């Protein structure tokens, strides 16, 4: 299957989305240079990933060529973590448990595992916590340690400086033969490496909100996707991994421009078109910040604007925090790009907007005026439908575990498209912090009536959360001072 095999009507719809994003971006925010929106060049010849370091076992060119010819049959599965003692209502939809999916993915590995993660903290002692809920993280670390014994190379890109001082995971893995690079994003772009994804054997992918942290498996609400047997997409995402790898080398500088072999041919304008489990699918990966977007790579912010701009019925978004400002520069600068796109959708196109924002012990109360401002737009009489709720994960008897009991998910769904990302919604996450976004759209299949398109599945998960007892309106108990669940 190749890019031309996809259904033309889906391709047309996506191109339109890109165009509306261009218009929005252009009009709204002059900082975003429209020059990257040019059409990508046709195939630039076979690319290889051999630059990853000669000692790494990587498929030789012939192997890659063979894999390209092999007909892939991509399969996408949504995965999630639900914090312990927070059972969803009986009969409510759920995705595959993340821990199970990660362990299976490592079992399936044959040649190589590439992992990008903000930080690592897979064991209880790393965090100074003795709690039985860390056992899944510890099992995952053991399986990662076994990879070199199975003749599978393990390459890790993580943020420098190290966030969790006492974590020993990476030393343990290096001792077993893993290659680790610490990417000094602070020096390079003023941000952090915040991406979270895996590329396995250049053919399977994980992407989502979870870091390599045991709490992501049992104490934090996370959402992600695994795509199996999809080498063209996996090799495209691996190019983003390669950008981190290059920047993690000693004394690395930001290439300007990036060499041509980092260019992407799969993007907003030319998404991959394929049948996923028989379902016609268009899909691409975005990246941030712009400095880490080689030619042809759609910027994460543009991807979000394209998805919002394409919505005609609804936009449901679940994010950890929502600030139409910068977060890390002082004084904060107003940055209304995403906020405006939501307002435009609601007012100009009558799109139903729902925003679910996490509220936890560390939530900055200065977020609430912005949420109330968005909510204030709601006017049913004029068909303007905007609703904001905050999601509070009850701490229950888990107060011994720091930085947990929070919804960390970052996703958005419209009637057309699902977006799964790694960025908080404030300016810094798009200007200096590295992240990736998965943008995917499926058409209900006439031959496989049982298979719900991914945007339908994600909508169900959103609606489950939106209507759960832990999601409360802004006029409810959460006034911004108190994100502790009272119920
Ligand atoms: C591109 O080529 C350079 C030099 O050979 C190499 O270091 C780099 O890893 C390559 N990039 C990709 C994405 O393969
Ligand atoms: C290990 O992997 C490399 C590269 O994939 C391969 O050439 C070699 O034969 C493998 N060794 C074993 C013992 O399987
Ligand atoms: C990290 O290690 C130091 C020294 O061993 C210790 O004092 C500190 O409590 C540890 N921190 C955590 C979070 O475990
Ligand atoms: C952890 O807790 C268990 C029981 O809660 C206890 O048996 C064990 O000794 C503790 N381990 C450490 C290292 O404190
Ligand atoms: C991937 O494809 C192989 C055959 O090429 C198949 O055996 C395997 O089950 C597929 N994996 C998944 C998870 O679909
Ligand atoms: C996102 O925002 C929260 C605050 O709500 C912050 O603690 C976190 O570090 C940010 N980035 C991540 C990891 O999502
Ligand atoms: C609101 O939408 C309904 C149904 O689409 C329509 O009948 C009605 O005229 C609209 N009202 C306004 C004020 O636009
Ligand atoms: C927390 O409560 C659950 C039941 O709600 C119980 O099974 C578990 O043992 C408790 N954990 C601790 C550390 O008290
Ligand atoms: C914002 C968000 O995703 N909230 C969810 C957090 O986790 C619980 C448990 O699954 C859900 O019910 C919430 O809706």
TrEMBL record:
PROSITE patterns in the cross-refs: PLD
E.C. designation(s): 3.1.16.1
Keywords: Disulfide bond, Endoplasmic reticulum, Endosome, Exonuclease, Glycoprotein, Golgi apparatus, Hydrolase, Immunity, Inflammatory response, Lipid metabolism, Lysosome, Membrane, Nuclease, Phospholipid metabolism, Repeat, Signal-anchor, Transmembrane, Transmembrane helix
InterPro entries: Diverse_PLD-related, PLDc_3, PLipase_D/transphosphatidylase
GO molecular function, one term: single-stranded DNA 5'-3' DNA exonuclease activity
Main location: other
Domain PLD phosphodiesterase: start-end pairs: 189-216, 403-429
SUPFAM superfamilies named among the record's database cross-references: Phospholipase D/nuclease
Gene Ontology process terms (BP): establishment of localization in cell; hematopoietic progenitor cell differentiation; immune system process; inflammatory response; lipid metabolic process; phagocytosis; regulation of cytokine production involved in inflammatory response
Entry GO CC: early endosome; endoplasmic reticulum membrane; Golgi membrane; lysosome; nucleus; phagocytic vesicle; trans-Golgi network membrane
Annotated signal peptide: none
Subcellular location field: Early endosome; Endoplasmic reticulum membrane; Golgi apparatus membrane; Lysosome
Listed transmembrane segments: 12-32
Catalytic activity: a ribonucleoside 3'-phosphate-2'-3'-cyclophospho-GMP + H2O = a ribonucleoside 3'-phosphate + 2',3'-cyclophospho-GMP + H(+); an (R,S)-glycero-3-phospho-(3'-acyl-1'-glycerol) + a 1-acyl-sn-glycerol = a 3-acyl-sn-glycero-1-phospho-(3'-acyl-1'-sn-glycerol) + glycerol; a 5'-end 5'-phospho-2'-deoxyribonucleotide in single-stranded DNA + H2O = a 5'-end 5'-dephospho-2'-deoxyribonucleotide in single-stranded DNA + phosphate; a 5'-end 5'-dephospho-2'-deoxyribonucleotidyl-2'-deoxyribonucleotide in single-stranded DNA + H2O = a 5'-end dephospho-2'-deoxyribonucleoside in single-stranded DNA + a 2'-deoxyribonucleoside 3'-phosphate + H(+)
Highest taxon in the source lineage: Eukaryota
Topology in membrane: Single-pass type II membrane protein
Family: Belongs to the phospholipase D family.
Protein name: spleen exonuclease
Originating species: Monodon monoceros
The gene coding this protein: PLD4
